[in-house]
């Protein structure tokens, strides 16, 4: 009977960790190109150049675009988030406690996923505005122009990730916060996790890099950044009799890469 209970507990725990990771673990994973079930220590994403349309003579051969394909390698790294769990009998009957431990491991791995993606975004060298002010309307519009001039598709797959200070500054921009501009369904006051504006989904995030008092925010297209997973979130639970406890180990193998620098604009925002 105890063996059956232990197996049921392990399966339940694994399911809760996976669900917690998918629900709340990572904010940015679904905003980038994703490749799952990668075999090996790295994978390759293709950056495809622009094609040029041409005419042809009657009965002549159709001209070939000869698209430029540039491979971008994305290495994978292994990450772990483990903890000891004592008094397993009590834990098996305490649903809330189990969910707390499962969530903690999943959230830790989710933060690592976002950390990988943000590290790649931080390598961007295309800036809008200077670093002597915050996130202003003029800086947003300059970034908007840069994306447009680079022919970055305005197809609903643009994303902007900003710090919480910058989110507060956006709320001070009438075009962002007023229903007169965005309509009643897109008001940011209804939630604090995301809002669509200028054809872009704006997402506040607490993990953005700050150099001194300057926070790096990013506006990018989904195809410009890539995420690869060799092993999605897995959970291993082992019993250690000398500790009278189970060791719960959450692990994953993932990586990220910046595919197209033209698809990312960085907004350097001063925080005073």
Measured distance between first and last alpha carbons: 61 Å
The assigned CATH architecture of the largest domain is 2-Layer Sandwich
* Percent in strands: 25-35%
What share of the residues lie within helices?
Answer: 25-40%
Number of helices: 7
Order of helices and strands: HEEEEHHHEHHHEEEEEEE
Radius of gyration: 23 Å
Can you describe what's shown?
This protein has seven helices and twelve strands. The strands form three sheets. Strands 5, 6, 7, 8, 9 and 12 form a six-stranded mixed sheet that branches. Strands 1-10-11-4 form a four-stranded mixed sheet, covered by helices on one side. A two-stranded antiparallel sheet has the order 2-3. By secondary structure, the protein is α+β, with helices and mostly antiparallel strands. The protein has helices spanning 2-25, 88-92, 95-121, 137-149, 164-171, 174-177, 179-182, and strands at 33-35, 42-48, 69-75, 77-86, 158-162, 195-197, 200-204, 210-211, 214-221, 225-240, 245-258, 264-270. α1 packs parallel to α3 (95-121). 31% of the residues are buried. It is 31% helix and 32% strand. The chain folds into two domains: 2-48 and 63-121 and 230-255, 2-Layer Sandwich (Major capsid protein gp5 fold); 137-224 and 261-270, no CATH class. The longest helix has 27 residues, at 95-121. The protein is globular, with a radius of gyration of 23 Å. The N and C termini lie far apart (61 Å).
Helices and strands in order, then pairings?
Blueprint: H1 2-25, E1 33-35, E2 42-48, E3 69-75, E4 77-86, H2 88-92, H3 95-121, H4 137-149, E5 158-162, H5 164-171, H6 174-177, H7 179-182, E6 195-197, E7 200-204, E8 210-211, E9 214-221, E10 225-240, E11 245-258, E12 264-270
Parallel strand pairs: 1-10, 5-7
Antiparallel strand pairs: 2-3, 4-11, 5-9, 6-7, 8-9, 9-12, 10-11
Helix pairs in contact: 1-3
